[in-house]
Amino acid sequence: MAAKNYYNILGVSKNASDDEIKRAYRKLAMKYHPDRNPNKKEAEERFKEINEAYAVLGDKEKRKQYDTFGAEGFHQRFSQEDIFRGFDFDEILSGLFGGRGKREFKFGGRSGFDFGGPFGRQAGYQDMSRMPQKGEDVAYEMSISLEEAAWGGEKRINYRKNGKVEEVSVKIPRGIPSGKKLRLAGKGMEGRNGGPPGDLYLQVTIREHPVFIREGDDLIVEKEINFSEAVLGTTIEVPTLEGMKKVKIPPGTQSHTKMRLKGLGTPHFQGEGKGDEYVKVIVKVPRKVTERSKGLIQELAEEGL
Question: Are strands 102-107 and 164-172 parallel, antiparallel or unpaired?
């Protein structure tokens, strides 16, 4: 389940001022308050969402954390209890309904008030601290090799949960890029009051490869050749993910020329086909030469080579 976007819930932009957020909250709370919508489960759920959104965006520090880490990251760090900590229902809702005939209730584990008069409820408001709540999500960084990222497969990992080591099997999709997140539903912390468990989010990082450099779905490999091979041309063998391949180097090839091997890169993530491999040819200049080689090079220099 995607993390809640509190700005969308209140219908305000991310740059909204504190006053704009408060006005939006008051308008929506008045509209969806359960006393105005008796026996309407959808309105009650909407009212809970609105209060949760304002509990975060109406608090400067919580809003800063939410903007910094994003919706998903915020919910990995803040529990439901954390969200409602410091949320003053007395002040907010009494201002909203004028403080008429208020009766005590609980919301998110904290005391507040239910209101009589035209918005009074005979049974009082539901105690949300006893409602089923989803468990917290768990974040884990999973390091894989370039080959695992390219071909996919299954990988078993260990992670800590409630002080214990848990082992799970992870299916790695073909061509997955570094930085992608994988979600394992129900592998997070246990829920409360019979609620469902949270999820496990795996942040994928691809380890540096000794031969290949990955750029998107393309691979780059460097290959050195001698000066004479660059001038006269040659055939070399280069590594690919599918084994060694022969590549023809034409006469007069310049240093740092890239030779394209079509379709020998990594598979496209969630798509057909593959990227390409590029062989970067480096013309090697010898650091030491024999007297005979030096004489031959001088002769070439005299001919303008």
Answer: unpaired
Cα distance between residue 233 and residue 253, in whole Å: 7
Total number of domains in the chain:
3
* Domain end point (choices 158, 187, 206): 206
Domain boundary residue among 174, 206, 238? 206
The residue that leads in pLDDT, 272 or 218, is 218
pLDDT digits (tens, 9 = 90+) for 224-243: 999 889 999 999 999 999 99
Torsion, Cα 172 176 181 182, to 10 degrees, reads -20
Of residues 206, 190, 214, 228, the one with CA closest to residue 79: 190
The pLDDT tens digits for 23-58 are 999 999 889 888 788 888 898 889 889 989 998 999
| Sole residue written with tokens 């022969």 | 246
The closest of 267, 147, 154 to 207, measured between CA atoms, is: 147
Number of Cβ within 10 Å of residue 137's Cβ equals 21
